[in-house]
């Protein structure tokens, strides 16, 4: 659900969270950046709560009695929403100690556990899951195919993967998509060139990785997944009324959401 810097080493326990000493600090452990992000998410018209979270929860569907992994859980918004769907348990992982401390304070139902684990290090987890979810994290992963392979290895038979990420149309250029005039559509640059992008966000340079839609789909298929549904959320009239900027979603979606099943 947010930018991850992916550095992790020795494990320790702190304030009820499985923590880790890190060689570098997550960008979300920077106090100013963290506070800016929390302020952004607290706005009633933020995109996450208005359009991204409702759509990914609908795509996830029924998880009753299931063991669930939430990759890049941040301060636990999706994790808690998942916990209300009657799963056996939910494990939320993130590489930001500050985010997980916030999750422990605000979002800690009895069937939820948080651990400080980098998304690239999920192969250190010893248990298996029925459902793996991730909200707005995968566009920060350098090698998405390798991550899909690790997720596959964590899945029980008939396991499902459901994730959202910034839409490839949006990640293509370092300035994102330029919408100069809604009546004229959009301008996209470098869509066909996969790779690193540096974007200025909340006063910091943030590293992301752009991948064409075909790159993402093929990486899933190459690692044993069958895609069951693809969603590009479109805002309702009510959502546009709450946030007029969502008019741009009619010309280009901000989010790509994919549900995939483990092939047997």
Could you characterize what this model shows?
With 264 residues, the chain is an alpha/beta fold. The protein has a single domain (11-262), classed as 3-Layer(aba) Sandwich (Rossmann fold), CATH 3.40.50. Helix content is 28%, strand content 30%. It is built from 8 helices and 13 strands. The chain has a 7-stranded mixed beta sheet with strand order 5-4-3-6-7-13-12, with helices on both faces. The protein has a two-stranded antiparallel ribbon with strand order 1-2. The longest helix has 14 residues, at 47-60. It is globular and about 45 Å long. Residues 2-24 and 176-181 have low confidence and may be disordered.
Layout of secondary structure:
Layout: E1 11-14, E2 17-20, H1 31-42, H2 47-60, E3 67-71, H3 77-83, E4 89-94, H4 97-106, E5 112-116, E6 129-135, H5 144-153, E7 155-166, H6 168-171, E8 178-181, E9 185-187, E10 195-201, E11 204-210, H7 213-222, E12 225-231, H8 237-242, E13 255-262
Parallel strand pairs: 3-4, 3-6, 4-5, 6-7
Antiparallel strand pairs: 1-2, 7-13, 8-9, 10-11, 12-13
